[in-house]
Write a structure and sequence with these properties.
The chain is mainly alpha-helical. The protein is built from nine helices and two strands; from the N terminus they run αββαααααααα. The chain has helices at 3-13, 26-37, 40-60, 63-83, 86-106, 109-129, 132-152, 155-168, 171-190; strands at residues 14-16, 22-24. It has a two-stranded antiparallel sheet. A hairpin with a 5-residue loop joins strand 1 and strand 2. Helix 1 packs antiparallel against helix 2. It is elongated.
């Protein structure tokens, strides 16, 4: 309500007899209400309500809305038909049976015994992995691995590998390997064993 109308309602709806005895004036209240109803603010509110109602009616009567509602009803009908079908009911019964079987299994003494054994094994493994002996063993393994890595990355080891490669590429080594392979093939032939070349 506008401030001017609110003040009018206050001034004309209550009559002060200077004895703090207020009496309600129904005619003044009615006049003030009618004035508010005729006010531009209230008339604009009515227009806005009517506009919104018209837009909603237009929307609900549109082809898009009706198509959407028809699809929803179709989907609901198909879902209802599916849920009432023999296949769906049989599937539900199977699911319920599996659930009951699983509940029965989980409550069986065999299952509980198996779970108890698993928990016991897990506790024993946890105890072992936290033991001083296990930690000492793992520390030794890590130490050996670190030492091996350090050795293989050392200049001495890399030089040794290069020397072996050079040896394998030398004429003396190749000749010796050729004679060695011939000797092996000769022994295999005598024993009736196929040589490596026969498999290729």
């Amino acid at each position: 309500m506008p401030d001017s109308l609110r003040q009018e309602v206050v001034n004309e709806s209550f009559i002060n007899d200077f004895k703090f005895d207020y009496k309600f004036n129904f005619d003044s209240a009615t006049n003030a209400s009618m004035a508010f109803i005729k006010s531009p603010e209230f008339q604009q509110q009515i227009k806005d309500v009517q506009k919104n109602a018209a837009e909603m009616a237009k929307h609900f009567n549109s082809a898009e809305w009706k198509k959407q509602q028809a699809e929803i009803r179709k989907n609901v009908d198909e879902m209802r038909e599916k849920m009432n079908s023999k296949e769906f009911k049989a599937n539900q019964e199977m699911v319920m049976k599996i659930a009951m079987d699983m509940r029965k299994q989980f409550n069986s003494p065999e299952w509980k015994k198996q779970q108890a054994e698993i928990q016991k094994s897990a506790l024993e493994m946890s105890k072992k992995f936290n033991s001083e002996e296990w930690k000492k063993q793992q520390a030794e393994i890590r130490k050996n691995v670190d030492e091996m890595r350090e050795k293989m990355n050392s200049p001495e080891f890399k030089k040794h590998i290069e020397e072996i490669k050079e040896l394998q590429n030398s004429p003396e080594y190749k000749e010796l390997k050729k004679n060695f392979d011939k000797g092996i093939d000769s022994i295999k032939k005598k024993k009736g064993i196929k040589s490596d070349s026969d498999w290729i």
